[in-house]
Write a structure and sequence with these properties.
about 575 residues, alpha/beta, 3 domains, seven-stranded parallel sheet, elongated
Amino acid sequence: MKITRQILPVLFFSICSLQSLPVTAQDATTSPTNAEAAELTTIVSNAPPTAATNEDASKRIALLGISIKGSDKTVPMVLFGQNAELKAGETADAVVVIGGSASVHGKVREAVVVIGGNVEVDGEVGEAVVAIFGNIHVKPGAAIHEDVVAVMGSISAAPGVEVNGDAVSIGGKMDIADGATVKGDKVNVSLPAPFSDMGWLRDWFRYCALEFRPLAPQVGFVWIIAAVFFLIYLLIAAVFPGAVQICVDDLNRRPATTFFLGLLTKLLVPFLYLILAATGVGLIVTPFIWVALLLCAIVGKVAILQWLGLRIGRHFGSGFQKPLLAFLLGIILITLLYMVPVVGLLTYILLGVWGLGCGVSTAFARLRREMPDKPVAPPPQFAAAPGSTMAPPTVTPGVAPMTETAATSETSAAFGTVPPSAPQPAPSASASPVFPAAASFPKAGFWERVCAAILDIILIGVLVVITHTAPFCLIVALAYFAGMWTWRGTTIGGILLKLQVVRTDGRPLTFVVALVRGLAAAFSVVILFLGFLWIAWDKDKQGWHDKIAGTDVIRLPRSTPLVLL
């Protein structure tokens, strides 16, 4: 009975949608004690084949379920991945089978529970008979003292059958013969047509889930899903060979680093989602993060498949070093590993983590390369006049060279004249700062702008929580972005990443333009973020809100100050 008490809690989550099945505990006087278990062990292993033990030889030992003929000493029958059979005349406390079928011809004092298989009963069951992802066949002569329940399976009862409880079938059919007796209710819950026959789910549970592998020859629908993913991976490998090759090069340089980066990303992303969910407004940026990680994982997986194929192709000559051919070799290798029990699940997990790490590592590496370092001014060049022997001026260490303006001022002061100074325009307090030659700066990419947006959303969420203005979070966000763009031409996230919003015509960014840009950004959110995703493939790196407002987002050198109070 102790074994039954340990197994039934595991099955609780599978049958929680049903009525509570009364599986009462056996009286302590009938449970086998340690002395009795030792006696059974002695009978099985130590008894010599003499005439004195011929009576004990008639006691049968079942696989993982011991039943002694002519004795009340029984233990449960528990099997995993095998079929169970309780023969006529044998007795067991309970029968629990996972990933197999059960045939009960003898007596079961408590319940019969089968997951991923069928149940056949023509004996006596003291409590309920439960089948999950399987059918129940109750044959003539069977006596079931409590309920008969089939989840995603059918129930059939022959004439002469006696069921003292309810007969419940969920997602299957119920066939109760006229001569069968069901003292309780008959409940048949049917499902829509696509789910009326759950044999495919039972096969997946038995051959894939229980054997810890993604693919199995006996399950057809998993191969359809695998074929869809193969076409997606093949499309990416053919359309974006440059991005895949960059990931392959990163794998060649640091394979271990990419794996551990993927593991770290898996651990940190849930905490990031929790932080964004706590802010409320941060939920807007959650789809961006999910899509970005999905793209990184897919491209990374394609790169790993190609990388594995290239390493295998080395042993077959240079003809197997072509990217698409290497990709096919990698697919074949991973498919074979997916069909191996336990190894298939481990391969699936490792490939997912490694692919994510490869994609994230490459994305950050590209982001760092796109951010230029502080430019270094070239040394001044002096051109001597024809026929002149004047040497260029020497610069004393620690003393700044004299500029042309300073030299002119000093010369004019020596002769008592002051050169006229050009009038300096007063800075405008109502418009954002204008950077000269803004078109000469590179435009910010998709990932940079996503990172800046995430920082701004977190900041707005914290502000909304502190000020208790959650019902007006959208208005707060619009005011924040429009105000910051007007005042400084960027946001807090843009300041940290050195991003600046400028107009395409070179004029200052006014409040009206900033407000139009903010409303257009809200429109881009409503249509499933398509306006923001447009930045990723637009040649000008503009989103819909940029095109509507006539703006660009540029990346400034690290030496350019953005915080000018």
